[in-house]
Input
Amino acid sequence: MKTLPSLICSLSLAIAGLLTGAAHAQETKPGDPVAAQKKVAMCIGCHGIVGYQASFPEVHRVPMISGQSAKYIASALNAYKKGERKHPTMRSIAASLTDQDIADISVYYEGSGKNLPPHAGKSVALNAEIDALLKKGNCASCHGAGLNKPIDVYPKLAGQYEDYLFVALKSYQTDSKGPIGRGNPIMVAQAKMFTLPELKLLAHYIGGLPSDLKTVPQAKFR
Output
């Protein structure tokens, strides 16, 4: 016959085993783009309309996300979920997502539009001033050749809407304060090196580069 302490010990071990099993059952699986097809319904109302404009914190086109890496998209969604990025609409959407939702949505958008031709860009001339600004920020060290071949967890910038790029860069200057700030410490330090006119010039040049980024129109918005 077991004593009370031994019974308590046995029960504790059994409960621990059940909890461990439950944790394993809830582990995030590799992202599934098919499973994401229903989950992206909350995304396509903005990111599935070419040139769709948001009005907060100022009027700008929402970013093209088809063609970004899954690792970057997951990183961005988690930053909204944790409050490192403050945009209220994106924070509320990200807060509703499970880790599995984020994994599924991320791989969906990484593969979205791969059958479409690349975005040609507007061929903005690289003058001495812009070249100096790019070197000052050392942008290519993280965002890669042509600002289109980044380290996986960083975004492709080339060809992104210039008005979005400008708003995003300004939000890093705000840091994680207020309703629109972004708190990534590397980008906070980078953005604060530049004046607003310099950020606008960078955004204009980068937005004109050839790019893998696209907005893939959904059938209901074509």
Remarks:
- The chain is about 50% helix and 0% strand.
- The longest helix spans residues 4-25.
- The chain has one domain: 33-221.
- The first strand starts at residue 53 and ends at 54.
